[in-house]
Amino acid sequence: MTAQGGQTVKTRFCIISDTHTATLFPHNDTEHAYREPLPPADVLLHAGDLTNFGFMTEYEPTFDLLCDADAELKIVIAGNHDITLDEDYYAANHSLMHGSLKEDPKAIKELWTGEKAQEAGIVYLEEGVKTFTLSNGARFTIYTSPYQPEFCNWAFPYGRGEDRFNPVSNTTYYEAKNPIPSFPEIDILLTHGPPAGILDETQREDKAGCDHLLRAVSRCRPRLHCFGHIHEGWGAQRTNWATSYTKDLPTDLDKIIKDGCASVDLSEDSVEPLIFGQETLFVNASIMNVRYKPVNAPWRVDLDLPMGEKLPTVQLN
Questions:
Q1: Other C-beta atoms within 10 Å of 179: how many?
Q2: Is the pTM for the entire model greater than 0.85?
Q3: Residues 6+ apart with CB under 8 A from 297
Q4: CA–CA separation, 40 and 70 (whole Å)
């Protein structure tokens, strides 16, 4: 359980999603924020869609990019395009995307979980809850899920009527295997898809997010919820659960290009620190736009996390 009150420590996050194999532009590029190097951070979060079609040759440059990133801990989940990381889906549907070629899902999983990944601080997570303690003393609990409502027969799907994020109630019939815990158990949510109505609008003005996920987030009230999937939804919003007031965080394109990222500080050092339990910061960190061009910026977010026991290296509990 995440402690309420008590000592906290300012912690920096670098957040990206939907990189789709895109490598970073050179450091001297003056037109793109997605350039070398990624913003240094305590924790890097990647919300999935590492590839276009789940080939090993697509995972490898993304893996190398994350190995080179300056972050103590790099948490990675899959997205619907990472079809070889959804082993059940790939066993049944590999010919739809790969024809007669069949990749080895176990070798791909080993890339993300093997010795080299561990040495680089990469932690690949599936659906569930994990707790980490950083060397700065910050301790946080994260819920992760690569699943999103069924989309054009891609990987990690669930039906719109299926509630995989909330415990069974009188109004639900599906028993979720890994429901999102309620407040104050979770500090960070990392999902591939967005909740309904939050940074989820497509170019056709459809709201593509999940109603069940929104209900779970409002029950969980994490400090931070990161996702991607809907490229057009890139941005950040701050929601107050008591008043239901949501505001878009302003972005200055010239500053973003100059800094190589969009930045927000909601720590105690800021003018308006985030209040855990009352507010959540939502971030759609899709690097690709709707035309699959890497024109969106990484997000750099500063938040206060509860202080745990100070350790020399990151610990996974």
A1: 20
A2: yes
A3: 33, 34, 234, 256, 257, 260, 261, 262, 287
A4: 5
